[in-house]
Structure formats: C-alpha cells, structure tokens
Amino acid sequence: MAIHGQSVCRLCRREGVKLYLKGDRCYSRKCAIERRQYPPGQHGQGRPAKLKPYGIQLREKQKLRRIYGIRERQFRIYIAEALRRKGVTGENLMQLLEMRLDDVVYRLGLASSRRQARQFVCHGHLLVNGRRVTIPSFQTRVGNVIEVASGSKQMPAIVSAVDSAGGRALPPWLTFDASALKGQVLSAPARDEIDTDVQESLIVEFYSR
To answer: What is the DSSP string of 75-89?
Structure first.
C-alpha cells in the first residue's frame, strides 16, 4: 500500500485534476482543486512549464499511480502482467487495477475513497466468497462475492460510506445489495466501463522506451 507523507490534496493540485483521494471532501467546496487551481510550492503560481513528450507520459503515469495508490515497483509488475496478457496492453492494465479488491470495495460504495477501502481490507472488515481477505491488491475474479464481515456491518465509517455513495453510479460490471452490504463481480470491466480519466496508451509508451 502506498503511503504518502504529504497531504493528498497536494497530489491532486500537482496533477491539475481531481484524483478523488479524500472521499466526500473531493465533491465539496473544500476540495483543494476548487480553491487553488495551481500546483503546490512557491513556484506553483508561475508560468506553467511546457512539457515534452516524456514529461506528458510521466505525468500520466504518476496520475494513474496516485489514483490507485500504488508504488512504482508494484506498478511495474502490473505493466509486465498487462504486456504478458493477450489484447490491448493499456486496457489490460486498467482492468488489472480495477479488479483489485480495494478498488472493488470503493466502486461498490463500501468506502468513501480507495485509501479508506485499503484500510478496511487491511483491518479484515471484508470477505471474499465468505473468507476474510486482508490484501488490498488481491485480484478479484468474475463471480466473486464481496461482503462486509458480520461484526463490521454497524461500523460508523462503513455505514456513512454506504449512505454517501448513493450519488455515485455503480459500474455495470458490479452488482450491490445495500441491505446486505454485499456485492458481486459480474464481469471483467471493459475500458468504456472504467471512468478513470487517463490516457493509458501514454503510460505504456513510457515503459516501452
């Protein structure tokens, strides 16, 4: 799990887009991007630098890593696996990231952010097919049932996350029963079913240099 020593709001400002790292705050007027639309640091309000192709690719790679909270070493493993699989490498990469357990928990609305989802998984609050899984990077598969452990269903953080997630659209490749706090993976997500705003082709090019 990636741990940042700085405010995650600074990461959004550095990339110039909302990465939705702080849950409900990102949808409110308190969002850092809404208040300060320039990079952090003393030179943030200066003239923006003109990026070369390498810089553009680097920024896309950093943005994707930060959205999913993944360290560089682990990200390279995902790139290698995406290259190994048949099909379009960029789409394979996005599929691998989306089917991580922490991302599925976030997409189901059981957590207000991926960071909170990782915490819930690490603390043993989630079950996959009835078995407790504490590894956020666990790769879910089609047919897997993800649910909140019986002793965690009344946790204020989970109840609040489910209540506030009502405004988020559930991806078509997932189904969710709010009364039972249980969801299921119906299919592997296609690229047009993933709303993450990145150009994954640039990231593949970055690692193909």
So the answer is: HHHHHHHHHHSSS-H
CA dihedral 187, 200, 205, 88 (to 10 degrees): 30
CA atoms within 13 A on the CB side of 127: 14
Pick the CATH number of 8-97+197-207 from 1.10.150.320, 1.10.1050.10, 2.60.40.10, 1.10.3720.10: 1.10.1050.10
Q: Report the distance separating Cα 168 and Cα 175, nearest Å.
A: 13
Q: Give the DSSP letter of residue 6.
A: S
Q: Are the C-beta atoms of 208 and 89 separated by less than 8 Å? A: no
**pTM score:** 0.80
Domain boundaries, the chain: 8-97+197-207, 100-187
pLDDT of 6 above 90: no
C-alpha distances (whole Å) from 33 to each of 4, 54, 116, 168, 195 are 18, 25, 20, 20, 19
| Structure confidence at residue 1 as a pLDDT band (50, 70, 90) | very low
Structure confidence by residue, pLDDT tens digits, 57-106: 998 998 899 889 899 999 999 999 999 999 999 999 999 999 999 999 99
Tokens 């790769």 identify what position?
Answer: 139
Q: What percent of the chain has pLDDT over 90?
A: 60
Q: Which fold, 100-187? A: 3.10.290
